[in-house]
Amino acid sequence: xxxxxxxxxxxxxxxxxxxxxxxxxxxxxxxxxxxxxxxxxxxxxxxxxxxxxxxxxxxxxxxxxxxxxxxxxxxxxxxxxxxxxxxxxxxxxxxxxxxxxxxxxxxxxxxxxxxxxxxxxxxxxxxxxxxxxxxxxxxxxxxxxxxxxxxxxxxxxxxxxxxxxxxxxxxxxxxxxxxxxxxxxxxxxxxxx
Length: 193
Prior knowledge:
magnesium, three-stranded parallel sheet, metal-binding, HAD_sf, mainly alpha
């Protein structure tokens, strides 16, 4: 396969992705409540996406219809320096959100390159085990899974994400507020990521 073949596949795929991304924009269960809780504490929400801007523009609008509006969004092709696992997208969020201490930032991700991005940016990192791609479950499968299936998915995701050595691993974003409280205490004690 040559570069021109890859470019042709990408060109054929992109219109399909743009047409379908809004069909999959429903927020992860409990995410809207978690975001509201986090924001009530004065924490800003930045987003780094592996999607290119033309896909993100559709997804941002669709997510807003559900009530999810991050404070800033960086798409993978927004920066000439490139995307994950380099720190540039995360740091662009830091700049645009006016954050003065990167060590107080938390990068939450469901993929190995995203966790690496957080480390490379000097942030705390949190890996999502069950509400992400590495679990290998659709939302419907997750909602109807028995304990054994969930444990197998959790172990699959943990094996992958643990390679990046996240500071925390949690099942879903519903578990994030407790982790943020722990990080806040660690910061007050002088710890850094």
